[in-house]
Design goal:
alpha+beta; six-stranded mixed beta sheet; 104 residues
């Protein structure tokens, strides 16, 4: 169920309260879960929800928060990522996986 949030912090706090407790970091071809020293490939996770936030003073300063589940590893967590010109490089497989499509 997609929700509406006014701020990035509000979104993260609500997702964590709903069980998305891990913090993921995006690498070029995987997600890193530091608490478990795991690297999770695109085939091992799904994006449940995604929320985009634009910077107040500069629309190019945008962030996205993803609610992510890896059934294989029994993990639920969040990934906060830059959007636009500040985004880090990623493989086409990672880019495709992080395109949120409800019901997929």
């Amino acid at each position: 169920m997609k929700r509406n949030y006014d701020t990035l912090v509000e979104a993260i706090n609500d997702l964590k309260s709903r069980g998305y407790v891990e913090d993921f970091n995006r690498k070029e071809n995987c997600l890193e879960c530091k608490s478990n020293s795991l690297n999770i490939t695109p085939k091992e996770f799904v994006v449940d929800e995604m929320y985009r936030f634009e910077g107040e003073s500069n629309p190019a300063d945008s962030s996205i928060v993803y609610a992510i589940v890896s059934e294989k590893h029994g993990l639920k967590g969040v990934l906060v990522d830059a959007f636009g010109i500040y985004a880090d490089p990623a493989t086409s497989e990672m880019i495709e996986k992080l395109r949120y499509r409800p019901g997929h």
